[in-house]
Structures
1.
Amino acid sequence: MASGASPAQSPAESRSTDNNVGGNDSYPPQRHAGAVGLGPEYAKGASTGEKVDGWKEEMKGKILRKPEVVQHGHDLRTGAVKKQQMEDDSNPFQNADEERAATTAPEGTEKADRQQERRKSNLHVLGVRSATAVAG
């Protein structure tokens, strides 16, 4: 223990007591360990680039006299578009059952034959008769 801390004290406790040895209590104790203000609400609003793009689109809509383009630009600028996208993407596993990849080997290969044999043995263990076993 080179810093002079007793075995019962952690290095953080010894540092906090060492800082106050000189009598300089002008700084409050640190109660966080890093950047403050970055939490679950970080980057939920419109970024600077989105605000600029929204402003440009709003001006474009005003020049072309298209109220829907003006409204879309305003929504970009205020972060409403980003909020809507976050709500739409809230459950990425929502369509997981619909988008399954095939897990069987191409028919006629050795791997396909092994998979077929495993399926037959698994069905036999479970007490289920396969369609080929019933027919044969």
2.
Amino acid sequence: MVVSNISILKKMEALSIVETMVYPLSLLNAAVRNLKLNLKILNTVPIPSPSLSSHKTLSPTPSKPDLFFNSIIPTIHKVTSIFLFLVLEDMESSRVGVKRNSNDYSNTTTSSASTYLIEDTETQWTSWLVPMFVVANIALFIVVMYLNDCPNRKHTRLVGKCVATFLGRFSFEPVKENPLFGPSSSTLKKLGALEWNKVVVNHQGWRLVTCVWLHAGVIHLLVNMLSLVFIGIRLEQQFGFVRIGILYLLSGFGGSVLSSLFIQNNISVGASGALFGLLGAMLSELLTNWTIYTNKAMALLTLMAVIVINLAIGILPHVDNFAHIGGFLTGFLLGFVLLPRPQFGWLERRNLPAGTRSKSKYKPYQYVLWVVSVVLLVSGFSVALVMLFRGENGNDHCHWCHYLSCVPTSRWDCNEN
């Protein structure tokens, strides 16, 4: 997205009405059939909701359509994300586990089946890191609002009165300046929002990380934290806090880097890169652990449908898709590195009769995907960071890439502020 001057990019939700009313219902029906009316649908395979925390341009005096994108869409989108989220329970249901007694081991060693089963007794981690992330984000937002101190800001006289003045210095900026009920763009800039000029010219690379922890408003914060709770807790229970912590932080960093390469005239905040990284990781987890799923086609088609919806939202005006793509690609590659599951035969090696040869921990293709992903991650980050700190514009090397963020139509102009 190109704008004439610096304005704040807020990561918000953007979702079409058709998708909201039609698509989730069809997916929900499919989920009910596959779940066989099993109503235990809250412990789902975590997946970010569509267009989570999309970058959104906020001009000083937004028009009515802009206000709709900023405030109404996030609410509708969160409801729809729940529908999409429920469908993915079928992926967890498709991982069937069995316990085997000592009489079964001979059959296990002679079996020629191409798939293996994960036991129901698979270790479940206690989730504590994701709740800590949520608490940290909320606490930081309170600090930001305290420092913003809307009642004592002189510019509010020009754009309107502060919102919720009973909160004192914690009151929100006027709706005309920030429809998401939050601080001003200048406050966010001071506290670490992503801005290309400060990152490259002033060598403030730390903004690539701090911008992930800032939020543009209460609506922005609420939607992101609800999504993180649904997604992150389930992932952390399955794979542990170390792997999910690395996945979340590196995905957010990857989204910030790619966004800075292609969008250089705006400032941005929010965790869209990190949340899209979780979506990418779930896709690669499905692929690298392909043999443990009994409902492979359903799981893959569901994930691909959600991915297409998420990324398609990015072509709307004022929505930055580069942070989404950067986070998604980083999470997708990290999923091959951090989320492979060992073969069942390797898990049962201690219970095998003496002298029985056990299987290797991972399948050959899992090792290949691991190596390829590590190479792509290292080379990708190296090239992107070198280009960024040399001050290069990604659009100069990819003349069609701007269409990934906004496709111009007769109804909107991608170059408008």
